[in-house]
């Protein structure tokens, strides 16, 4: 069984980049200086991941899971909305009736700096974080992004789906089938992961496994691995370190869940964070990622 | 202290530039000094403030004692600003504090700061982890209270960040130790750990602080819990933590609670367990209301749903009538109509205290003063109409 490690969605910005974004907002540094701070942070993140097969730029310049799409489409970021049960907020995107499309190549170069694994909102979560956006429109938008990224070396796509699992919404999940099939058409050889977090994935798994995905991601701060069934030929992405808490995991704390997950004989395992890492300060996030590498290598 | 339609503020005010810069070791400029003189004049403190002006002339390199002195002056100015606006109960707008999380956490034993995390966009906050059982070695709002009562000529209220919010905004590196992840037993232990953390914060941190303030003579304390509805399934735990925080102080003084920018329906029915523990339940309303005049539900859209939640409770309703996120100065007539509408629903002026939605720290003193003056004037008009 192959065991990989990966980031999960948006990663923590380093303290120097944090300071640079603050300074830029207060007109204390230039755009060039801000971009240099981003480049330094991307480099550090690249080094952290090393030669891991699943690499991401950590979405360091994403303000939230949907904001970059405002720049692509002209959607209007609305008021702050609480991001589930966290002390973090996002802006609901208001899509106008007539969407204006920007240049995808420039947009993708800005928001996917490097990597082999891309994190995108799942079509359902995308519609829940927006107004005026149908599932079909969200899918069409994501299809173009996926089609653009595949020839540029992205072979694994994680569609972030916190809404369906938080709401326990099996119906919404089932309705994702045609959307994911549409995405499949432009990336037939890519690995698709549907990543749940902020809720117990077990009650939804029978529906999730009916979708055209290679793996399902589960948040182990909410989900009991023993309750998971994994069909033959499918993989699991295990959110096995808690990215909402700074306490560093030890091998003893994760051992039972890891053994249980292996006993389900998934085709592959991706060890990752329970949710986005950006809920943690950078040093802590880095330490948790290194721990993932350590347990992946320990066999 | 109680009276119908009592007016107060909710916590923070902006801090004067001369206070901010001096404490950050930044040099003061002429404009900063002029700001101090202007407000001293407006607040009738010009004569007393000669000592302050002399100190500010130093402009930089303030000693620790001088900084303490400047904080006391900022506190005195802020208290006077609220008195001059005509509020019945006053505070100093957090002139002693950094803000509502970092200030208490730095004074509670058992926490260590871990770094910055993102709140939204390019906004971050410094987040701490509990690393041992929390405790208070010295109540951390006493100095502030003593400073304020020295200057205040009106009753004083002290806000204190509540146990639930401090817990929710912190990491847990103590209670969660050795808790397995991804197992049924681990999931159960996580919930238990959270409850133990909350219980200890309520009993070992918030209660001693409240007790010290009561023993020092405080008559009105406000527990701030902006995180109360963050985890809907934990609302009963939040309520229990409040009961534990007040403990045997229940009934000895007036306790208020402030919660804002939340779905208040999530608090029900559990909030009712705080009847008799918390007297005033203050929420934000104006932020979600229209600016049109009138006392119909169609116009007062920000008030109907929440007031109906509270209508049949025993709480005094802390009525937010000023939107703290805008420089729009609510006209007297608009505030008056908001109060009259609340009266139509609650049917009792004894059950209403009037205040802004939240702390006014993001507004200038100029705007805050204008908003508060109008609020007081609106209350006077309503009282006159009611013959109070």
Can you tell me about this structure?
The complex is a heterodimer of chains A (299) and B (388). Chain A has 12 helices and 10 strands. Chain A has 299 residues and is α/β, with parallel strands linked by helices. The longest helix of chain A has 19 residues, at 31-49. The model of chain A has no long low-confidence stretch (mean pLDDT 96). Chain B is 41% helix and 14% strand. A 7-stranded parallel sheet of chain B has the order 1-10-9-8-7-6-4. In chain B, strands 2-3-5 form a 3-stranded mixed sheet. By secondary structure, chain B is an alpha/beta fold. In chain B, helix 1 (17-23) runs antiparallel to helix 4 and helix 11 crosses helix 12. The model of chain B has no long low-confidence stretch (mean pLDDT 97). Chain B has one domain (6-15, 79-100, 137-386): TIM Barrel (Alpha-Beta Barrel), CATH 3.20.20.210. The interface between A and B is large, with 52 and 34 residues.
Blueprint (SSEs and pairs):
The complex is a heterodimer of chains A (299) and B (388).
Chain A: E1 2-5, H1 15-25, H2 31-49, H3 68-73, E2 76-82, E3 89-94, H4 104-111, E4 117-121, H5 123-128, E5 130-131, H6 135-149, E6 156-160, H7 162-167, H8 170-174, H9 176-186, E7 191-195, H10 205-208, E8 215-219, E9 235-241, H11 251-263, E10 268-273, H12 282-297
Parallel strand pairs in A: 1-10, 3-5, 4-6, 6-7, 7-8, 8-9, 9-10
Antiparallel strand pairs in A: 2-3
Chain B: E1 6-7, H1 17-23, H2 30-42, H3 50-56, H4 64-85, H5 102-107, E2 109-120, E3 123-135, H6 142-151, E4 158-161, H7 163-168, E5 171-172, H8 184-216, E6 220-224, H9 235-246, E7 254-258, E8 280-283, H10 304-310, E9 316-320, H11 332-346, E10 352-355, H12 365-386
Parallel strand pairs in B: 1-10, 3-5, 4-6, 6-7, 7-8, 8-9, 9-10
Antiparallel strand pairs in B: 2-3
Helix pairs in contact in B: 1-4, 4-12, 8-9, 11-12
